[in-house]
C-alpha cells in the first residue's frame, strides 16, 4: 500500500500517514469510497462509525456491501470488506450514532483528524462542535447527485462548518398545502402530513384540514366558511381522535378528506374566483380515469410496472383502503401509545402517500404522478451517483495530506459541479477562509437573535424546533438570565417535561430577555437574545409556518466598512460553487433539496485565510486570486490548487 512502498508518497507525508490515527464518520456512499482509499493509502489506524444497517438500495453504489450483507451494520461490514484490500491495517468499527454521549471530547482527542461522510446537518454540525471542542481538524464532505464538496475546518484557523449559514429546506405556505394546491408536490406534502396526523407524530403545524384563516379566504364570502367552522364536528377533536372515533373506517376517512373538507373549501368561494374550483369525490361513484387522462404516463400505462404507471382513481381508492387497514393494525400493535414513523422505503406507507396525493391531485385538477415519481419527491431522493462519491472520496485523501502537514492555507474548499464554469472547470476550488468572528458556534462569545411569536412558542417548541433542529444541539440546558437563574429546559430526562406545553411567555420572557444555553456534550455555550414578534407581524404570519425566526446576530447584518474593502465577498463566488455548497444541507428530512438559486447566506463577511511564512509564523499577505497569476491556465487560483494537489512536494 502507498505508505508501505518507499518513494510513492513524499517522505514527510509517508511518515505522517503511518503514524496517524483517524476517524471516519459515516459508512455510506462517500464513507465506503473513503475507507477503501484510506486503506490503499496505507493509513494504519482507522476508526469508523455508522448508525445504520445495510439496505438493498445501498448496493448499487456502496460497493463494500453485497447482497448477503443486507441487514448487517454498515460499519462492521465496511471494515471487513476494506481489510480485504489491505489486511495490514487496524480498523475499529462502531455501530452507533455519533451523537451518543460516549463519543465525548476525550474520545475525539485521540485522533489526528476527523472525516465526515454524513448525510444530515445535525450530525455534521455536532461533529463540527466536537472537533472544535477537542481542537482536532475536520474534513467535511458531501455528495448529492452530481454535486459534491470537501472542506477543511480547524479551530481558530479556518472557518468552522457553521460559520456560513446554509440554505434551508424549501417549505410551502400552509394555505397552499391545506387550501389551494397547484402542483403535485403540494399534494405529496399534504399526504405526508395526513400520514403523521393519522398514524405518526402529529404536529400541530402540519394540519391537513382546510385553513379558514387563509387571508385570501377572509372576505365577505369567506366569512360564510368561518361561520360554518363552528359546526364542523372535527374541528373540536384532533384528526387522530376523530379517526379513532370512527375506527379508521377507510370509507369514512375518504369521505372526510376528499369530500367534506373539499366542500368546505368550496364554501370559501373567494379562493376560487381566479382558480379552478376543486371537485369533491364520492366513494360510491369514483371516476375510472387517472387524474389526467391526457397524461403521457397514462397513455403508456399497459406496458408499465405498478410503480411506473399512474393509477386510475378507483385503484387509488382501493390502495387507500388497503393501506389504511394495514397502518391501523400496525398502530394498534405499537406498545405504550407508540406511533408509526413515515419511511419512504416502507411499501405500505408509500402506497398510502401515492394514493392520497393522486386522489387530491385529481380533485384539484393537478396532473398525477407514478408511485416511483412520488417516492422520489416524498423521500427527497436525489439519485446518488457512485462517481461523485468516488471523486469526493479521492479529494478527501488529497486534502488529508495537507491537513497532516498543517498546510492550512492550501486546504482549499473543493466544489464538484454539474457543469463546467466559465473557466471550463468542473471542480471549483475556493479559498480557505478564516473563522467568522461572529459565528454562533466558533465565535468567541456565541450569541444569536431569536424572534418569537409569544402567543405560540412553547417551551417544548423552543427545545425541539429551535435548539435541536435549527441550532443542532443534542442535549441543551437553558437558563433565563433573569437574576434568579430560572431553568427553562434541562437535559436531564424528565426534569422539565411538565412545563413543555407551557408558553414561554409564562416565564416572563420579554423583548431583550437573554437565554443561556449550554450543551455539555458539545462543550457549547450560546446566548439567545429574544426579540418578540410584533402583533402585526405575528398576525400576518402564516400559522402553519414556524412561530420563530433565527435572525443571527443583528450587528452581522451590516458588514463593517473595513470588511467590505479588504475581504473576499460571497457574491464573488461562482454560482456553481454555491450550488455545490448547498450539498452540505442535504438533510434526510428535507422536503425539497436546496435549489441552485437559493443563496448561501453568510453571517458577516468572509475572510480569506492569511498565509503564514513557514518557520516564522508571520502573516505574509492576504491570499487573493489576483495576486497569484498563472500564465498557463489564466486561473492562478485553480492551477495553484491543482499543482498543490498533484505535486505533494
Ligand atoms: N448520527 C449519525 N451517526 C453515525 N452515522 C450516521 C449518522 N447520521 C447519518 N449517518 C450515516 O451517514 C451515512 C451517509 O451516507 P449516504 O449519504 O450514502 O446515506 P445512505 O443512508 O447510505 O443512502 P440513502 O440516504 O441514499 O439511502 C449513512 O450510512 C448514515 O447511516
Ligand atoms: Zn464558525
UniProtKB/TrEMBL annotation:
Record PROSITE patterns: UBIQUITIN_ACTIVAT_2
Residues passing through the membrane, by range: none
Pfam families recorded: ThiF, UAE_UbL, UBA_E1_SCCH
Record-annotated active site: 175
InterPro entries, per database record: ThiF/MoeB/HesA, ThiF_NAD_FAD-bd, UAE_UbL_dom, Ub-E1_IAD_1, Ub_act_enz_dom_a_sf, Uba2, UBA_E1_SCCH, Ubiquitin-activating_enz
Region: Disordered, residue numbers: 206-234, 559-649
Domain Ubiquitin-activating enzyme SCCH: residue ranges: 338-375
Domain THIF-type NAD/FAD binding fold positions: 9-430
Residues of the Ubiquitin/SUMO-activating enzyme ubiquitin-like domain: 450-535
Pathway as given in its UniProt record: Protein modification; protein sumoylation
Biased composition (Basic and acidic residues): 559-581
Domain of life per record: Eukaryota
Keywords: ATP-binding, Metal-binding, Nucleotide-binding, Ubl conjugation pathway, Zinc
Acidic residues: bias regions: 582-591
Self-association and partners: Heterodimer.
Family as reported in the entry's similarity comment: Belongs to the ubiquitin-activating E1 family.
Record's protein name: SUMO-activating enzyme subunit
Lineage: Eukaryota, Metazoa, Ecdysozoa, Arthropoda, Hexapoda
Amino acid at each position: 500500500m502507498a505508505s508501505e512502498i518507499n518513494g510513492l508518497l513524499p517522505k514527510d507525508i509517508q511518515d505522517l500517514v503511518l503514524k496517524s490515527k483517524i476517524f471516519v464518520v459515516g459508512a455510506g456512499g462517500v464513507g465506503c469510497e473513503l475507507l477503501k482509499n484510506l486503506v490503499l493509502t496505507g493509513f494504519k489506524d482507522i476508526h469508523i462509525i455508522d448508525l445504520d444497517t445495510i439496505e438493498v438500495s445501498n448496493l448499487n453504489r456502496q460497493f463494500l456491501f453485497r447482497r448477503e450483507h443486507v441487514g448487517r451494520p454498515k460499519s462492521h461490514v465496511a471494515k471487513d470488506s476494506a481489510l480485504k484490500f489491505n489486511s495490514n491495517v487496524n480498523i475499529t468499527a462502531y455501530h452507533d450514532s455519533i451523537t451518543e454521549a460516549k463519543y465525548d471530547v476525550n474520545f475525539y482527542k485521540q485522533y489526528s483528524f476527523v472525516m465526515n461522510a454524513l448525510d444530515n446537518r445535525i450530525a455534521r454540525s455536532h461533529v463540527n462542535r466536537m472537533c472544535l471542542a477537542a481542537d482536532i481538524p475536520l474534513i467535511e464532505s458531501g455528495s448529492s447527485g452530481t454535486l459534491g464538496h470537501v472542506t477543511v475546518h480547524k479551530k481558530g484557523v479556518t472557518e468552522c462548518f457553521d460559520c456560513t449559514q446554509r440554505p434551508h429546506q424549501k417549505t410551502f405556505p400552509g394555505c397552499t398545502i391545506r387550501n389551494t394546491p397547484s402542483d403535485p408536490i403540494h399534494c405529496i406534502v399534504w399526504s405526508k402530513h395526513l400520514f403523521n396526523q393519522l398514524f405518526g407524530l402529529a404536529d400541530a403545524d402540519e394540519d391537513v384540514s382546510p385553513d379558514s384563516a387563509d387571508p385570501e379566504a377572509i372576505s365577505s364570502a369567506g366569512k360564510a366558511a368561518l361561520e360554518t367552522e363552528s359546526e364542523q364536528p372535527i374541528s373540536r377533536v384532533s384528526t387522530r381522535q376523530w379517526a379513532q372515533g370512527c375506527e379508521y373506517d377507510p370509507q369514512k376517512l375518504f369521505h372526510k378528506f376528499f369530500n367534506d373538507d373539499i366542500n368546505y373549501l368550496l364554501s370559501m368561494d373567494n379562493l376560487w374566483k381566479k382558480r379552478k374550483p376543486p371537485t369533491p369525490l364520492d366513494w360510491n361513484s369514483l371516476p375510472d380515469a387517472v387524474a389526467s387522462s391526457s397524461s403521457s404516463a397514462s397513455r403508456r400505462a399497459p406496458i408499465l410496472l405498478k410503480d411506473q404507471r399512474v393509477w386510475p382513481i378507483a385503484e387509488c381508492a382501493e390502495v387507500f383502503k388497503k393501506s389504511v387497514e394495514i397502518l391501523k393494525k400496525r398502530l394498534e400493535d405499537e406498545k405504550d401509545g407508540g406511533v408509526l414513523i413515515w419511511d419512504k422505503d416502507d411499501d405500505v406507507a408509500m402506497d398510502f402517500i401515492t394514493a392520497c396525493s393522486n386522489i387530491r391531485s385529481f380533485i384539484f385538477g393537478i396532473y398525477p404522478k407514478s408511485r416511483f415519481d412520488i417516492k422520489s419527491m416524498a423521500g427527497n431522493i436525489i439519485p446518488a451517483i457512485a462517481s461523485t462519491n468516488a471523486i469526493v472520496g479521492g479529494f478527501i485523501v488529497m486534502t488529508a495530506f495537507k491537513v497532516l502537514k498543517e498546510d492550512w492555507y492550501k486546504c482549499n474548499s473543493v466544489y464538484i459541479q454539474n457543469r463546467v464554469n466559465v473557466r471550463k472547470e468542473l471542480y471549483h476550488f475556493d479559498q480557505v477562509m478564516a473563522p467568522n468572528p461572529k459565528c454562533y458556534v466558533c465565535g468567541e462569545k456565541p450569541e444569536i437573535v431569536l424572534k418569537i411569536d409569544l402567543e405560540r412558542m412553547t417551551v417544548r417548541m423552543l427545545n425541539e424546533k429551535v435548539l435541536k433542529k435549527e441550532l443542532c444541539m443534542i442535549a441543551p440546558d437553558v437558563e433565563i438570565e433573569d437574576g434568579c437563574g430560572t431553568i427553562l429546559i434541562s437535559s436531564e430526562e424528565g426534569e422539565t417535561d411538565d412545563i413543555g406545553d407551557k408558553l414561554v411567555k409564562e416565564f416572563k420572557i420579554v423583548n431583550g430577555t437573554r437565554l443561556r444555553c449550554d450543551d455539555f456534550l458539545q462543550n457549547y455555550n450560546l446566548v439567545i437574545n429574544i426579540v418578540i414578534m410584533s402583533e402585526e407581524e405575528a398576525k400576518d404570519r402564516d400559522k402553519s409556518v414556524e412561530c420563530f425566526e433565527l435572525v443571527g446576530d443583528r450587528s452581522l447584518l451590516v458588514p463593517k466598512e473595513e470588511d467590505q474593502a479588504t475581504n473576499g465577498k460571497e457574491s464573488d463566488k461562482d454560482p456553481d460553487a454555491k450550488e455545490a455548497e448547498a450539498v452540505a444541507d442535504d438533510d434526510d428530512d428535507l422536503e425539497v433539496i436546496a435549489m441552485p438559486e437559493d443563496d448561501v447566506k453568510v453571517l458577516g463577511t468572509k475572510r480569506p485565510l492569511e498565509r503564514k511564512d513557514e518557520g516564522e509564523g508571520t502573516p505574509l499577505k492576504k491570499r487573493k486570486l489576483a495576486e497569484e497569476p498563472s500564465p498557463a491556465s489564466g486561473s492562478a487560483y485553480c492551477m495553484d490548487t491543482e499543482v498543490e494537489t498533484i505535486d505533494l512536494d
